[in-house]
Amino acid sequence: MSDAVAGPVDWVRTLRIQFRVLGALILREMSTRFGRENLGYLWLFAEPLMLGTAIGALHHATGHFLPGGLHVVFFWVTGYVPFYMFRSVVNRAPTAVVANQSLLYHRRITLLDILLSRNLLEGGAVMGTLAIFLAAFGMWLDIWPKQPALVVLGMMGMLAVSNGLALMLAAGAIYTDLVDRVVHLITYITMPFTGAFFMVFWLPTDMQRQALWIPTVHCFEIIRRGLFGTEVPTTFDVGYTVTWAIGLNLVGLLMLRVARRRLVV
Length: 265
Known about the structure:
Shape: globular
Low-confidence stretches: none
Strand content: under 5%
Structural class: mainly alpha
Distance between the termini: 41 Å
Mean pLDDT: 85
Number of domains: 1
Oligomer: single chain
């Protein structure tokens, strides 16, 4: 009986310790990146806010209209903010291990903890930024998300896909610095294909099928279904997105486990 009880108790205790480790690493990352002043922490939200606002204002100034009668600023801002999360998580991944390698002296801290804490911080900040934008659009333009749960689901899917790619890139960076040198270029080159700035129904039929091979396109379509409801057509497959997210994370974990052997701590 005592052994049967000890198993779940030990599991809960281990889980609590793991959450504390992640919490401590998140606080350390915030302090390292933004300093100990409150204004420094605000930059975590201010950067995507300013960039999203600039993107929306720029496209508003062009006077172009969007298919389906979508509000120009609302569409571009809500497209750029999720992409900002994807780009930030992926671009910061190659330097994660080098910047935090000394932490591996602590027995309970692993490479996964280091990367997960950074990515959760980035994801939480960007989701908070998106919430601020949506509240602002709701109060000033009376545009409110039709299905907020789908917006959250799409953002979580984007974070999961980004995290899987980040694990793989971090592992690759342990072998060569070339990963860090090319990842920024690649994220900019692939930006037009992620789904951030187009909707699937805008494309010709053949291009729609090709676009839907890309998992981030499904994430954006889920977010836009949550934002616009049935006002415009959306095409996505939650199962396909989950499969990609699980696959990328499993491959990333395997790569990290192999690459860990090359580190000298």
